[in-house]
Amino acid sequence: MNIIKTGIEGLVEIIPTIYKDDRGWFFELFREDHFRNHGINPKFIQDNQSFSKKGVVRGLHLQLDPYAQGKLVSVISGKVLDVVVDLRKGSSTFGKVHYCTLDSERRNLLFVPEGFAHGFSALEDSIFFYKCTNTHHPGAEIGIRWNDPDLAIDWTVKEPLLSAKDKNHPTLNELLIKSVISRN
Ligand SMILES: Cc1cn([C@H]2C[C@H](O)[C@@H](COP(=O)(O)OP(=O)(O)O[C@H]3O[C@@H](C)C(=O)[C@@H](O)[C@H]3O)O2)c(=O)[nH]c1=O
């Protein structure tokens, strides 16, 4: 397992070692001790799976404190473009967007710390799997508009299929003005 730093503190990509033999293959999806060696100590308490048809965009989502969720995200089948935005109060990379393609050949994973908005676009029909450090609290959930002009995220899909909820989120700037999110 190779844990690679991104340009954003605490956000790491994990490249597992895949052991192949005549029966098939094996890999370690999560190792607490390996994460700890990199100064990351997530305590996962919920696992989720979703299936998305090619062209679906889910996001951008986050839960506010005290229900913030760190997420270890991956795909079981298919390929997605995973997108995160650092919205941690006081972060030197506040507002920075990070892209990571997750695919079921490399079986790479992204660990997204608490305080990031998260979303993905399905580049193929994909089963998405993620571990969370907090349980689902709908009352603490907020969303940011997928096509926020300031974030200008390139989801690489032409006409995304979105949930009704995801079509109507405010922009990051609107959330900053209302102090739902603060930079400092
Ligand atoms: C996220 C979630 C949803 N649900 C229910 C609520 C709803 O009826 C149905 C679908 O929910 P959503 O439309 O919010 O699902 P989805 O759009 O897949 O939401 C997810 O998107 C990605 C990008 C994330 O980062 C996740 O944290 C989560 O917000 O599932 C749960 O029961 N538990 C959960 O943990």
UniProtKB/TrEMBL annotation:
Highest taxon listed in the record's lineage: Bacteria
One Pfam entry name: dTDP_sugar_isom
Reaction(s) catalysed by this chain's protein: dTDP-4-dehydro-6-deoxy-alpha-D-glucose = dTDP-4-dehydro-beta-L-rhamnose
Active site, per annotation: H61, Y130
EC number: 5.1.3.13
Any GO CC annotation of this UniProt entry: cytosol
GO MF annotation, one: dTDP-4-dehydrorhamnose 3,5-epimerase activity
Keywords: Isomerase
A biological process from GO: dTDP-rhamnose biosynthetic process
Xref: Gene3D superfamilies: Jelly Rolls
Pathway named in the protein's UniProt entry: Carbohydrate biosynthesis; dTDP-L-rhamnose biosynthesis
Subunit structure: Homodimer.
Task of the protein: Catalyzes the epimerization of the C3' and C5'positions of dTDP-6-deoxy-D-xylo-4-hexulose, forming dTDP-6-deoxy-L-lyxo-4-hexulose.
Recorded family membership: Belongs to the dTDP-4-dehydrorhamnose 3,5-epimerase family.
Protein name per the record: dTDP-4-dehydrorhamnose 3,5-epimerase
Organism: Pseudochryseolinea flava
Name of the gene: rfbC
